[in-house]
Amino acid sequence: MKTYSLVINGRSVPSDRHFDVKNPANGGIVGSAPKATKEQLELAIEAAEAAFPAWRDLTSETRAEYCMKVADRMQEAAEELAQLITREQGKPLNGLGSRWEVGGAIAWARYTASLDLPVEVLQDTNQGKVEMHRKPLGVVGSITPWNFPVLIAIWHVIPAIRSGNTVVIKPSPYTPLSTIRLVELMSEVLPQGVVNCVTGEDFIGAEMSAHPKIRKIVFTGSCATGQKIMQSAAQTMKRLTLELGGNDAGIVLPDVDPKQIAEGLFWGAFINGGQTCAALKRLYVHDEVYDAVCRELVDYARNIKVGDGLLDDTNLGPIQNRQQFEKVVALVDDAKKVGGKVLLGGAVEKKGPGNFFPVTLIADMNNGQRLVDEEQFGPVLPIIRYTDVEEVIQRANDNPNGLGGSVWSRDIEKAKQIASRMECGSVWINKHGAIQPNAPFGGVKSSGFGVEFAKEGLAEYTDIQVIFS
User: Which domain of life is it from (predicted)?
Assistant: First the structure.
């Protein structure tokens, strides 16, 4: 078993205390992660602060070249990263799993490296010239979740450093090892102190969000934690980008071909075992095609194998941690009690050390029931029957979250009209959750604020300064 270290100022820094990181497929120990002290967090922040002036003053082209070097180094270590992700997170190596995650992270890094925020001339007349400059903030604090430990780290770190900031990142204690290794790789090609990694207990994140030398927090995770970050960040007026929970609704119109859309519906809901913020979490199906859609979903889903992600024939892995596993079990049990009809799955088939939960489809659900109202973040999909389109739009919007949504129809223009009335940051037509680096992504309502990706996401790591001359 390997013992990992913190990464501060470009060097591995050992810790006196560690914690075990477990494989959710078998309960085995993947590695020993360091528990950072408050003093070590201060060292990481000081390193980032010291590195900032020189990094900020590099040309934009030079920082872009550094970001490309990060992508190249990740490419060289892609298989190592993928294996580590699967062992600590649980997702399969193949399909839409760890190799796909690493490949996506590399592609995202390369695209973000290509972006720029040049000076904009707002006025150039006899009355004078007005320029808008985008200036980096300083030290950025990144707090990442356990569902995509490398991909989301790249979403946070690369735009931060591309725009001239330095970073201290704290990964989830459930999946810290692949992020530590990622930052080690970054440190091989970046100047010292530009990216630092600390791991450990919850107080680290709380200290970061309140720290006066951290100018911005970018956080992906639960609404409850996002609220705590907002409260603690208020004292120092930090900039925030919060991508919080989602309870995405999909609306299936009566003109669809149920067999044709079944695969897209399934993967929209069950990518990463449903452990995805912008996964399809509530499916509203018109009465005319309700039974057929349910039947086709069951036919497709019954061939999906849940198992150890290191096995070649595994399609979906375990739920990443026991706390989330127990939440999924409780929501499914409640759905059964209130009259939900289990079409597939619904119960753990055998006891064992892994957090395996079967692919579960539950029909005849409705708003006001826990499995519909709450974000399950697991391999379970509630299916709700409707007859009136106006009513179903209201039901889809009747939730505090607003991250993503989808409309399924042969009539693209009609689908777009419905999409425009959905209260969420992204809406897909005949697919779900297909984010891409050239399109801004973020939530409304309780799903957070600010956006990631594209130039709009890059700009979130800067302050505006207007120069009049």
Answer: Bacteria
